[in-house]
Amino acid sequence: MSAHVANEWARGEVVRTARALLSGELGILEACIPLASLAHDVVADWRVDPDFVVFGAVASETDDLPLGKARDQWSAAALARADVEIDRYTREVQEQVNTPCRNVTNRFEPQQTA
Hints:
Layout (H helix, E strand, L loop, with lengths): L2 H21 L4 H15 L9 H10 L14 H33 L6
């Protein structure tokens, strides 16, 4: 796959993931992790991009929390404690993440031509 095709695919995934977060289909943590990992394919430097730096920060701050299949490996008691932290953190960063999601959707959504 050429770099151009890869970047087009990555931009499409960024838009799809951001839309899924905004619609409630994906949670904040489940969306920020792939958004952070796609950043290097869609922006020159995610560390200074005002939108992708937010996704990277959230992914980094929560990399010790159980998500997806990793939850199967945790005890019920540990999951209960982790879920309290996930809920607290999600509420804390909700609006900080929604705005960059709207921004990247606008930036990378394919433009319709007349």
